[in-house]
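Figure-free illustration: sequence to structure, shown twice.
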Amino acid sequence: MEVDGKIFGYKKKIKNLFELAAQVLQEDFSCVDVSVNFVGEADIKNLNNQFRKIDKVTDVLSFPNLDKLPSQNLNEFASEKVDNVLFLGDIVICKAQAKRQAKEYGHSLKREICFLALHGLLHLLGYDHINPEDEKLMQSIAKNILTQFGVQR
């Protein structure tokens, strides 16, 4: 697995978290690439407005490269590999918003960054929270992975 992008000081932590997520989800991340970037409030607000038509700062945005359902395995997307690498997509995190949320929820910035990165990864893997059942599933998976990773609330 490769994690690229501007994630100063968090690259190893996020990579390890994603590798644990792969184990829990029984996915093969050996030839997977994900881009994770920290951006400022203006940038994430612009992206949120441009792609979701919501003109406000948000905490995390995901831009999947695959049209994947949670029930599908990444092996089904072998034809999408370029130079034997499957690019899942981009995750964009607003660190300023993450700091505010960590304070609001009473936990560490590390925990909030891990939660947001994992949330983004789950979206890249086809999970969503549009309806209550899907939201419950996504939250359950995230809680399980974060607990195993040692950054529970």
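We now fold a second protein in the same way, so the two outputs can be compared directly.
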Amino acid sequence: MARKKTDKIQFFDTAIQAGFPSPAEDYMATPIDLNRELISHPSSTFMGRVRGDSMRDAGIFTGDIVIIDKSLRPKSGDIAVCFIDGEFTIKYIKIESSSVLLVPANPNYPTITVGTDNDFMIWGVVTYSIRAHRGNKK
């Protein structure tokens, strides 16, 4: 599938120190296309907005946008969007020989053991999360 033309955003092409700042220089590079940067499989990639705090210790909060790639084969340790018993949830997945565990990143929530009586599927693997640091968080 061909990519649609999108507006490109200026890219600051140097590491941005999270410790002590380095002297400023002219580091503006060629603009980047966020679709090309963040999405490997456009026809099978979706975005969703997170609600709840079960993944807070993974750095995913209410209002964040997650990028979900349905073409990736899920593996243990991935953060995934799962459909279980009529509802979507986002959790770490732990795939064991006889079961799948949905593991929250917040100790206030229980791990969910998926059983044969559950209506369950791993809908897609989360590849990125986007958080607003200022302004509207829905």
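Summary for the second example: The radius of gyration is 18 Å.
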